[in-house]
Amino acid sequence: MIIPPLPTPFDPQGRFDLQAFRELAQAIEPHVDGLLFYGSNGEGVHLSREERTQGLAAQSPKKPVLVGLMEETLAQATAALAEAEGLGARVLATPPRYYEASLGPDGLLRYFCGLAEAGQSEVWLYHVPANTKAQLPLSVVAELAQHPRITGIKDSSGELSRLAFYASQKLALEVYTGHAPTFLGALALGAKGGILAAANLAPKPYKRLLELWQAGKVGEAQALQAELEPFGRVLAQGGFVLLKQALRYLGLPGGYPRPPYPSESPAWPAFKPLLEAFRERSWTVE
Length: 286
Fold this sequence. Notes:
Family: Belongs to the DapA family.
Helix content: 40-55%
CATH topology: TIM Barrel
GO molecular function: 4-hydroxy-tetrahydrodipicolinate synthase activity; N-acetylneuraminate lyase activity
Shape: globular
Active site: 126 (proton donor/acceptor), 154 (schiff-base intermediate with substrate)
Binding site for pyruvate: 195
Strand content: 5-15%
CATH class: Alpha Beta
Keywords: Lyase, Schiff base
């Protein structure tokens, strides 16, 4: 499956644009296999509880949904879990991070197991150290994988050694990568698909890469990954600011980052020709 972490549109003054949020989801959903709301590229940490609730209520997805939880306490996460259950969504939860040094492995186990036992939704682990600056130790992942309602992990670290560990231990988790530059490597190590920022812009070639790998056409898959690598790498460098700028360039209602973040990325001059090349090949969402 190829799933985009959908951006959350704000207007130039930083107000949550609910109509644009719904329209963006409706524009992208037909091209992908599901949607992630409030992931890292969805600026979930920039939303109030009321805005999160309003945003989910505005959506009517037809494909599978995940909802990101980036909370600091179990009480906060449990409240967000209840909102996600209204959409029948799985939740994708990062570890608490502000007091990480005081948490330790036992605290991580208490947090994720408590979240899994607080509702009926499946819980996926979300390892994105570039943003959270928090670690999710492999030993903790292995223990959490034994919980019946902890069923998946999105690993955005780009560290293929972690995916090799998941495979070698035969963990009972659906493994997805969030790192487009190493997408093929992740597939080779057992990942089922990608939850990729690039899929908001150009899901077609990433779906094709997945199909080639599944069909055993390794050489063709390697060639396509080589073509896609600069696109994924530069987009990762520019983050959500660059993603929203690219969506606006394509005429999609991606909106703007919430202040104080800038509306334009310094990576745009490098990314624009890559995006235009994809557009010429009819690889982009229009």
